[in-house]
Amino acid sequence: MRKPEVWLRGPIPDIPFLLQPAAHALLQTLEEVPACLQDFPEERLWEGTAGRASVGFHLLHLTGVLDRLLTYADGKQLNEAQLEYLQSESKPHPDLSSESLVYRFEQKVSETLEIFKRSSEATLRQSRLVGRKKLPSTVLGLYFHAAEHSQRHLGQLLVTATVLKTRQAPSGE
């Protein structure tokens, strides 16, 4: 029997009340990513479809966006390595496997949940500036966006993976 979605399993221990929905969404994404990749042909990891990004992109982006939003929530701007990672997300990385990309995402979600555990309500209300344009947000807004953005890319990953799994390999492969 399939388990209920994460948000229907009760509170996540030690996560503040206001961050429960974000924690639930991140954990749901973490559970569903491997399911999307079940029987996915590794040779198609960097292949897009219908003008959309590849599964590899979404896996890289899931980790990268969490890292960037945590940086902004910490009151910092992105460093050179983060900017390089952002630029590299749209490029194929044949040296990376789906398994290694999922592992990186798992590690980043674990790090995020630890940060959530240390967050007070006063901290969540603090203003933050986002990006080069220094657009206004709050720590809570950044954490919420990290969770919903992960869910958005999970959906895109699911569709792309499903289409590529069912598509015939080009002749000659």
Automatic annotation (TrEMBL):
Q: What is the lineage of its organism?
A: Bacteria, Pseudomonadati, Bacteroidota, Cytophagia, Cytophagales
Domain (DinB-like) ranges: 27-157
* Superkingdom, taxonomy of origin: Bacteria
Q: Which Pfam families match?
A: DinB_2
Q: Which residues form a coiled coil?
A: none
**The name this protein goes by in its record:** DinB superfamily protein
Q: What InterPro entries does this protein map onto?
A: DinB-like (IPR024775), DinB/YfiT-like (IPR034660)
User: Which Gene3D superfamilies does the annotation name?
Assistant: dinb family like domain (1.20.120.450)
